[in-house]
Amino acid sequence: MRPNILWICTDQQRFDTLGCTGNRFVTTPNIDALARESAQFEHCYVQSPICMPSRASFLTGRYPRTTRLRQNGQTIPSDEKPISRLLADAGYHCGLVGKFHLAPADPAVNATIEARIDDGYSEFCWAGDPHDNWGNHSGYTAFLSGHGKQFETRPHPDCAFVEIGMPEALHEASWCANQAIEFIERRAGSGSPWMFSLNMFAPHHPFNPPEPYLQPYLDRIDEIPLPAALDDDLSGKPAYQAIDAEGAYGRTMPYWRGMSDTDHRIVRAAYWAMCDLVDVKVGTILDALTRSGQRDNTIVIFMSDHGEMLGDHGIYLKGPYFYDPAIRVPLIINWPGRIVPKRHAGLTELVDLAPTLLDASGIDPYPGMQGHSLWPELNGQSPPEGRESVYCEYYNAMPFHSDPTAQLTMLRTQSHKIVVDHANGNGELYDLDADPLETINLWRDSTALAVKAEMLTQLTHRMAFTVDPLPPRISEW
Question: What are phi and psi of 462, to 5 degrees?
Answer without folding.
Answer: -65, -40
